[in-house]
Amino acid sequence: MLMEKLNGASNSILWKIVFSLIGVSFVLSGVAGYVFTQADTSAAKVNGQEISQQTFLQQYNEEYQKMSQQLGAQFAAVADSPEFTNGLRQTILNRLIDQELLRQYASELKLDAADSQITQAIVTTPAFQNEGKFDNRLYQQMLAANGLNGDMYAQYVREGLRFDQLQSGLAGSDFLVPSQEDNLAKLFFQQRDVRFAAFPLAQEVAKQQVTAQEIKSYYDANRTAFAVPELVKVQYIDLTRAVAEKNVNLSDVEVAQYYQDNKAQYMTQHLAHIQLPTQQEADTVYDSLQKGEDFAALAKLYSADKISGEHGGDLDWVVAGMMPPEFEAAAAKLDVGQYSRPVKVDNAYHIIKLEDQKVRPLAEVKDEIAAKIRNDLAVNEFYALEKRVNEKAFENPENLNAAAQAANVKVQETGYFSRKDIPAALNYSNLVSTVFDSDIAQGGSNSEAINVGDQHSIVVRVVEHKPEGVKTLEEAQADIAAYLKQEKAEKIVLAEAEKTVQALSADSSAALPEQVSFGEAEKWVYAENKDPALNNVIFSMRKPTDKPVYAAAKTADNNVVVIELNKVQDGKLAPEQLQQFHHQLEQVRQTELQAALLTALRTKAKIEINEEFIQQE
């Protein structure tokens, strides 16, 4: 359930779950867009309800960044391809449409959550707990980190609870009785005791003969299989952050100067605030403070932020970057015990009070500052290095030696490769496009530094280029002969294995062919699926009674075996394992039910896609 997932998340993960399962579109699709223009600001419309372009782009960018972080350098290899971009756009669009369909369906069912349920859900969220109690500092930190205010987050929680009710309803609409679940567990974890007798192929392959006519006939019938792709051999130099860092030096004086210039970053403030919806209300409360009324008492009475208001406006200790910039700027001007005039932040007005503050000493943050400065210097040095290399590569197009010398790195060279077997060090879509499709593809010139990741560029030149073609019969002859011999041998050996199965089925003590013997007994469990080809055969064999059961089969690697099945035992799970299996079955069923519901909702829905927006570059 959604709220259970929310409760188990950390702050950063919490945001992703909120936006992937609750859906930004639940809240924003009805209010996003430009009110005073006739331009179509929708990404799509579902039964007349708009999914805004803003919402689409927000989710697209978040998903893009998440994938970039997960895949690292590999991400650059696919990020620029039309297939990736179009696929990601379609995924986000389908997700938003599904969320809107479920939102509308929940409204039709009149599902809702009371304000008390929302408050209870927030204050009992483990991510906001500290020593078993609600910690407003953690709550405010999450809001600030994700650009939310209390009302927005409450609305997300409301929609989450509505979605939870819908999921519960779906779960209750279909079920398996315990006996069915137990039978499924028995089958899924069924264990079969088998032995294998491997029939050697190598000797039979060596006996096979193929004629020139057989080879030619196969070649004529499968000519496309012998296509030779376009091939290139390249030289390249690899520019990375590590290369740039070798030129970075940092002194203690630079660290101390940075600390003095950026002291606010190392300040921790204990803040409180009173949030008011209008300037007039804020001014009224400010006047009351000026007359000597208690800040905490006024916060409890008037603050729109009910969570902090219950605690006298207390936001606990905050650090730089935790609150919106306007909020932090106002707080930075305060002395301990002082409060600010009303400050407008995100369509609300805040009176901010500085309860206390601490400043971390230089000795404590010295390493942290040094790492930051060194990072900034490395970034600058990388781009300076990239510029020097570009200049040398342009000035000396006949080779990469001068460019490599400028970076103090070595020129590396590959063997021949095609578009389908790119070396891992060069497997980036923009680099591949440069090698095969740009002006340098025919050789004789150097590329510019091609960015393939964060502070990672490659300069490349094509040394040799071979156009695509088709292998001649003479070139393909050896491969065809080997394939045909293997094919003939497999048929002969499989037929021999089938005869052996018949003999053993009649008499389990029948002699096996020479050089064939059964190996040690093995236990195969259906759920493990060790070898898909063998798994299907083994678990489709009838159960043995008073003697073993036999079958012949090809393995996934095209070997031939005879299988001896001696025993079948239903899966047995410990109570906690069985409970977990039942839970997994329930999740699968719920997923299938939701998919069926969405299919039905889509069938009767009017869905309008803004193709011009979705397909734009």
Strand order of the largest sheet: 16-5-18-17
* Beta strands, count: 19
The largest pleated sheet is described as:
4 strands, antiparallel
Shape: extended
Pick out the low-confidence regions. Answer: 1-37
Radius of gyration: 34 Å
Strand content: 15-25%
- Would you tell me the structural class of the helices and strands? alpha+beta
Q: Approximately how much helix is present in the residues?
A: 40-55%
Overall pLDDT confidence: 84
Total helices: the number is 24
Cα-to-Cα separation, first versus last residue: 37 Å
Short account of what is shown:
The chain is of the alpha+beta class and 617 residues long. 51% of the residues lie in helices and 17% in strands. It is built from 24 helices and 19 strands.
Q: Key features?
A:
617 residues; alpha+beta; four-stranded antiparallel beta sheet; 24 helices; 51% helix; extended; disordered N terminus
